[in-house]
Amino acid sequence: MARAGGISNAVNVGIAVQADWENREFISHISLNVRRLFDFLVQFEATTKSKLASLNEKLDTLERKLELIEVQVGTASANPSLFARDV
Amino acid sequence: MAVPVEEAIAALSTFSLEDEQAEVQGPGIWVSTDTGATDSPIEYSDVSAYRLSLSEDTKALNQLNALILEGKEMGSVLYTYRSCVKALPQLPDSMKQSQADLYLETYQVLDLEMSRLREIQRWQASAASKLAADMQRFSRPERRINGPTVTHLWSMLKLLDTLVQLDHLKNAKASIPNDFSWYKRTFTQVSVQWHDTDSMREELDDLQIFLSTRWAILLNLHAEMFRVNNVEDILQVLIVFAVESLELDFALLFPERHILLRALPILVVLATSSEKDSESLYKRVKIIRLINIFKNDPVIPAFPDLHLSPAAIMKELSMYFQKFTAQTRLLSLPSPHELPPREALEYPLFRHYLIVNHIGSIRAEHDDFTIRFASSMNQLLLLKSTDNADIEWCKEVKGNVYDMIVEGFQLLSRWTARIWEQCAWKFSRPCKDIVPSESQEASASFSNYEKVVRYNYSAEERKALVELVSYIKSVGSMMQCSDTLVADALWETIHSEVQDFVQNTLATMLRTTFRKKKDLSRILSDMRTLSADWMANTSKSESGPLQHGSEESKGNVFYPRPVAPTAAQVHCLQFLIYEVVSGGNLRKPGGLFGNSGSEIPVNDLKQLETFFYKLSFFLHVLDYSATVATLTDLGFLWFREFYLESSRVIQFPIECSLPWMLVDYVLESQNAGILESVLIPFDIYNDSAQQALVVLKQRFLYDEIEAEVDHCFDIFVSKICDTIFTYYKSWAASKLLDTSFLFALDNGERYSVEPMRFTALLKMTRVKLLGRMIDLRSLIAERMNRVFRDNIEFLYDRFESQDLCAIVELENLLDILKHAHELLSRDLSIDSYSLMLNEMQENISLVSYSSRLASQIWSEMQNDFLPNFILCNTTQRFTRSAKVPLVPVQKPSVPYAKPNFFCGTQDLNSAHQSFARLHSGFFGMPHMFSIVRLLGSRSLPWLIRALLDHISTKTATLEPLITGLQEALPKSIGLLPFDGGVTGCMRLVKEQLTWGTKSELKGEVLRGIKEIGSVLYWLGLLDIVLRETDTTHFMQTAPWLGLLPAADGQILHSQDGGESPIVNLFKSATSAIVSSPGCPNPASFNTLSKQAEAADLLYKANLNTGSVLEYSLAFTSAALDKYCGKWSAVPKTGFIDITTSKDFYRIYSGLQIWYLEESIRVSSNSQEVLGDSVAWGGCTIIYLLGQQLHFELLDFSYQVLNVAEVEVASITQTHKSPHFVQGWDGLLEVMKKARRLNNHVFSMLKARCPLEDKTACAIKQSGAPLHKIKFENTVSAFETLPQKES
Asked: What is the DSSP string of A9-41?
C-alpha cells in the first residue's frame, strides 16, 4: 500500500521552503504597507469629506445671510428718497 | 528607490485624521490584497513543489472548485429567474394578422432564457459525472494515488451542496416550467416553416423532462455514482467527516456549517440507497447521532427566502429512492411545517430559533467582547510604540490579539447564523392569525410574503433584530478598521504557532512515540520539511535543523517572522495529519480522531487534533477582511425572489421589506436606546446591492434595490426630521411649563420629556448608501430650516383665524418655538431664529415698518375689536359683546396641523392650551404685553400711527352725523326746573330731546364715540405697558450709562459731562491692551471701544421716551381743532351760553341720557353693546374741546341728579325714613355711575393732558362783566360733592 508522504528530495525541498519563507517575508511586508497606504487614503478621504461638509455648511449659512442683507440693501436703495439727507 | 517603506508609512500617521462623526454604520469600504487564503489563489500549483505526489488530487480539487464556482453562477441564474411570460404582450383583435410575427419575436426572446436553462441542464450532467468519477477514483480499495485531502473532501461536499441547492431551486421555481411550455408552444408555431427540426424537438423534450422532474439533478447524480458500485466508502467518509465536524462545531464560519447540514441528509440518502448492505453506514455512525443532528436543525437556510428541511427532504426523496424507504427512523422525523402551532410553541427549538430569546446573552457577549477587543488593540498600539519590547510580552500581546480576532469571528459567525436561521424559521412558519391594524385592510387578503415577513415579526422581535444587526455591524466595522493594524501580529502569531508545532511538538513526538514507526515518522518529518522556518530561529545558530534529534526536551525559542503559511502549506499539513491519524485507510471504522484502535497514543492524538483544527482556522484568520465581509453580510434579508414569483406581483411594497421595517420600527418606537442604530438597517441595503451586483450579477435587482433605497431614505429623512422636531419642541414646551405647578401636580411626569440623543445622528456628514456618500446633517438642517418657517407660518395663519385675544397664545407658542430653536442650534447649525421670524413676518425690508403681525393686529382691531368689543373700566379689560356683532367678521378657518406644530406632544398641547384658554376670552394687560413683545420697537410706532389715523377718520365721519343731530335739537335748551322733581325733569328732557327725524343717527354716533374711546383706552393700556418695559430697560442700562437717582425722581449723571462708565471701561481696557507689546491686533480693540461709545449714545438717546397716551391725546386734540368751530360755538356775549344747543357737549349729554334710559328699559341693556368706552370717547372729546365745565354744569343727567338730590333731601325732611324718588331709582343709579365714570376720565385727562389756562368772561360780584380773565382747569366741583351711599 502506497503510504502518503515521502518527499522524494527532502533536503532540496527544505532549502527551497526556507528561501520561500524569506521571499514571502518581503512580499508580506510590501503588501501590508500598500494596504496601510490605502487605509490612509480612505481615511483621508473620509475626514476631508467631513471637513468639506462643515465648510459647506458654514458657507451655506453665510450665503443665506448675505442674501438677506442684499435684499435689505435692495429695499433701501430702491427708495433713495428715504435716506436722502435734507438739504 | 531608497525610500524606507516603513518610515514613509509611519510618517502618514502624523496627519491628523480626526473626525467627529460617530460610527453608527457598518463597515463599508473593502480594500484587501489577499482574499485568497481559503482557496489558494494559484490553484494549489505550488503543492507539487512539496513533492508529496498529490498532483492527481490537486487536479481533481481544482476541477471541483471550478465546478462549484460555475454551479454558484447557475444557482443565481435560477434564483433570479423571473417569468417572461407574464410580460409578454397580447395582440388586440385588430392585429391578429401579425400573430405569426409575434410568435417569432416571442420565440427569440424566450430562446435566450431557455438557452440558459439548457446550459444548466448540460452543466449538471457534466458536474454529476465528474463528481461521481472523482469519488470513484479516490475510493478504490487498492489506492494508488494520494488523496483525497481534507480540502478535497470539502470541495466534494461543497459541490454536492451546490447541486442540491440547484435542484431545490428548480423544484421551487414554478415560473420555469411555465415559461418553458409557452416556449414550446411558440416553437411549434414558429418551426412550421423550418426544416429539420427533429433534433431540436428532441432536445426540447429532453429539457422538458429535466425541468418537470423533481429532483432530476439528484437522481442523475445517483445514477452516475452507482454506475460502478464502489462509492459507498467515500460517502461514508464524507458522512463521518460531516457528522464529526458538526458535533465538534469546529466550523469557524457559519456558511460551512450550513453546507454540512444541507449535504448531510443527501449523503445519508445516497449512502443507504446503494445496492450493497445499507446498514454498514450505521456501523460507523450510530443512527442516533444523525437523528440528533437533524432534530437540532429542523430548518436550514438555503437561499435568502428559501429554506430546506432535512426531514421533509428525506421524506420526499424516499419516494424516489426505494431503498431509503426502509429507514423508518429517519423518515419519522417531523418536518417543521407539520408541527401544529401549539406543539411548535412547546418545541424547545422554537425558542432556540428566535433571537428574542437570546438577545440578553448576546448583549452581554457584545459588551464584554468590545471592551476586551479595544483593550487588546490598545496594548498592540502600545507595543508598537515601544522600542526594544520584551519578547515574552510581545508574544503575549500578539497572541492575545489573535485570540480576540478568533473570538470575534466566532461571535460574528454565531450572530449572523442566528439571523439566517431565524429567517428560515420564520419562512417555514408563516403568521396564521394576522391582526389587521387598519380597518380598510381587513378585507384585503394578505400575500404570502406579508404573512412570513410583515406580520411575522413582533415588535419585540424587530427590536432584537435591530439590536443584533447593529452588534454585527459595529463589531464588523471595529474589526475591519483594525485590519492593517493587526495583520502582522496575526501573521507572526500564526507563524510561531506553526513553527512551534513543527519544530517542538513534532520533534518531541519523533523522539518518543514514533521512533519505532518508520512510516509514521517519515510523514512527521515531511511535515517539518515542508513548513519549518529554521532561519527565523537566528539566535540559536548552533541548533540547526540537523541537531534537532539531540535537542533538550525544552523547545526551541523562535524569533518571530510576520509571514503566514500559504494555503498550499496548510493544505499539505492537514493532509499529512489526516494521513497519520487515519493511517491512509478510509475504511477504518470509527471517526477521525475518536479512533480508539489507532496505534498512536491519546496524548499525541490530542495534539495532532488540536493543530489540525487550528490549521483550518488559520486560513480564515489570514483572509481577514474577506472573512469579516462574509460574516457581516446581511444582504439576504432583502431578497425575496421566491415569494415574488409565487405572489404574482412585480415587487412588494416597502412595508414588507425587512430592512425598512426595522428602520420604521426604530423611528416609531421612539426608543432612545436603539435610536442611534437607525442607520444600521440601511447597511442591509448596501449588502444586498453588493450581492445583487457581485454574487447574483443581476442589474435589474440592483435597480430595484436602488429605487427602494432612494424611496426609503427620503421617507427616513422626513420621518427623522419630524421626530427630531417633535422632540425638541416638546422638550422646549416642557421646560417652559411652570416648575412649581408641575411639582404640585400628581401626573406631572406626563409633561416631562424622555431624553433622546440625536447628537450622533446630527453629526453624520457621510452616510454610506450604495456607494454614495450622503450628507445627512445638511439634509436635516435644510429640512429644519423649512419646518421652522412652516411652523411660524402656521402660527400666524392660526392667529389670523382667531381674534385679537389669541395674541397671548401666539406669543407662548412662538416662545416655545424659539426655545426649541435654541436647543436644536446647539447640535445643528440652522438659520437664526430672528432671521426666520423676520422672513415669515414679511419684515425684511429696511424701509417698511409694518409687518404681517402688525397689519394683522391692525386689521383685526379695525374689523372686529373696535366694533365688537366692549370695555369694562373697572377690570381694565375688553370683552366681546354678547350681542350679535354689528359688523360680521369673515375669518379663514382654523388651519389644521400636527401636534408638533404646537407644543410637541398631545399632553403638552393640552397643558399649554389650558393656560392659553385663560386669556382667550378678553383683551387686557397680558395681551398688551404680548403685543409689545411681539411687535417690538420696529412695528409698534406703525400701529400707533394707524390707530391715531383711525381716530381722525372716525371723527371726520362723525362730523356730518353730529351736524345732523345738532339740527334736530331745539334752538335753545334751558336749565331743568326743580319744581317738577325728577319726574318733571324727565318729561321736560323728553320733550326737548325728540331728535325728530334724526333719531336713527343716535346709535351710530354713539358707536363712533365708543370706537374713539376704545382706541384711546387701548393706547392708555399700551402706555402703561411701555412704561413698565422702559423702566426695566432703564434699570438695566442705568449703571452702565452712569445714571444716579436723585431727589424728586430726578436723574443725575454721575460723570458731569465726562464719559459714562461703559465707555470708560472699554477705553481703559483698550489702552491697556494696546500698550502691551504682545497685542496682535490693536485695531479690533479700538473698534470695540468705538462701539462702546456708539452704544452709549444710542442708549442715552432712548432714555426719555415720551408717553404714548399723551402723544395720542395731543394728536386727537389737533384732529379736533378742525371741528372746533362747529362743535363749540364761542358765545357772542363772551359769557357762558347756558341755552346753546350747538355745542358738542349738548349732543353728548342728550345721547348719554338717552342711552342711560335705554339701558334700564331694555332687558338686554345697551350698556353691554357700548361699554365704558363711550364715556372715554365722549369725555375726551368734550375735554379736548374745552367744554368740560360746561358739561359738568349743564349735562341733563347731572341736572336730574341734582334735582333728585334736592327732592330726596326734602322727602327725608318730611318723612322720617329716607327712600328714593319713586320709580326713578334705577335711572338715578346708572346716572350716578355714569357721572363717576366721567369724573374718572376727566381726572385722568387732566393729569395726562393738562390744558393750558383758558381765558373766559366772568361776572363780578357787582354784576359787571369781566372780560378775559384766566382761569385754571380745576378739579370738577362735583368730585368734591359728598357722595351718597351708592
From this structure: THHHHHHHHHHHHHHHHHHHHHHHHHHHHHHHH
pLDDT computed for residue B541 by the predictor: 38
Q: Is the pLDDT of residue B455 over 50?
A: yes
Q: Does A48 touch chain B if contact means CB atoms closer than 8 Å?
A: no
Q: For residues B1241 and B1188, what is the distance between their CA atoms, to the nearest angstrom?
A: 11
The one-character DSSP state at B1234 is H
Residue located via cell numbers 495583520: B487
* Residue B341 pLDDT class (50, 70, 90 cuts): low
Handedness of CA B443, B447, B451, B454 (dihedral sign): negative
| Percent of the residues in chain B that have a pLDDT greater than 90, as a whole number | 25
- If we measure between CA atoms, which residue out of B1193, B1142, B981 comes closest to residue B989? B981
Res B853: pLDDT: 92
- How far apart CA B1084 and CA B1062 sit, in angstroms, is 17
Which among A26, A45, A57 is the top mutation candidate for probing chain B, defined by the most B β-carbons within 10 Å of its own β-carbon?
A57
- Local confidence band at B753 (pLDDT 50, 70, 90 cut-offs): confident
What is the pLDDT, as a whole number, of residue B336? 67
3-state secondary structure of B1254: strand
Grid coordinates 471550478 are at which residue? Answer: B66
Q: Is B772 helix (H, G, I), strand (E, B) or coil?
A: strand
Contact B536 A21 (CB under 8 A): yes
Give the pLDDT confidence of B1022-1045 residue by residue, as tens digits.
999 999 988 888 888 888 888 887
In whole angstroms, give the CA distance from residue B674 to residue B349: 28
Q: DSSP letter at B437?
A: S
Beta-carbon contacts of residue B1207 (< 8 Å; ≥ 6 apart): B981, B982, B1221
The mean per-residue pLDDT over the stretch B1226-1248 comes to: 89
Interface membership of B766 toward A (CB under 8 Å): yes
pTM of the predicted structure, to 2 decimals = 0.87
pLDDT tops 80 at residue B554: no
Supply B318's cell numbers.
424516499
> CB-based contacts of B192: which residues, under 8 Å, 6+ apart?
none
Q: How far apart are CA B1028 and CA B1044, in angstroms?
A: 19
CB neighbours (10 Å) of residue A36?
Answer: 21
Query: Which chain A residues are within 8 Å of B536, Cβ to Cβ?
Result: 21
Mean per-residue pLDDT, B327-345: 68
Whether residue B51 and residue A1 make contact (CB cut-off 8 A), yes or no, is no
pLDDT of B111 higher than 80: yes
Adjacent-strand bridge partners of B767:
B774
DSSP3 helix / strand / coil % (chain B, rounded to 5): 70, 5, 30
**CA–CA distance, B1071 with B1119 (Å, rounded to integer):** 55
- From B558's Cα to the closest Cα of chain A, the distance in A is 14
Amino acid letter, residue B226: F
Structural domain boundaries in chain B:
44-228, 231-352, 484-622, 698-923, 936-1249
Block residue for cell numbers 424622555: B754
pLDDT at B1110 over 60: yes
**Distance (Å, whole) CA B762 – CA B783:** 12
ipTM confidence: 0.88
- Would you state the pLDDT for residue B378? 94
- For B334-343, what is the mean pLDDT? 64
Query: Which residues have C-beta within 8 Å of that of residue B754, sequence separation ≥ 6?
Result: B670, B672
Taking the CA of residue B491 and the nearest CA in chain A, the distance in Å comes to: 9
d(CA B701, CA B704): 5
Q: Is the dihedral of CA B348, B349, B355, B361 positive or negative?
A: positive
Rounded distance between C-alpha atoms, residue B454 and residue B411, angstroms: 28
Domains of chain A by residue range = 22-75
Q: Is B972 helix (H, G, I), strand (E, B) or coil?
A: strand
Closest Cα in chain B to A75: B845
Residues B131 and B63 sit within 8 Å (Cβ to Cβ): no
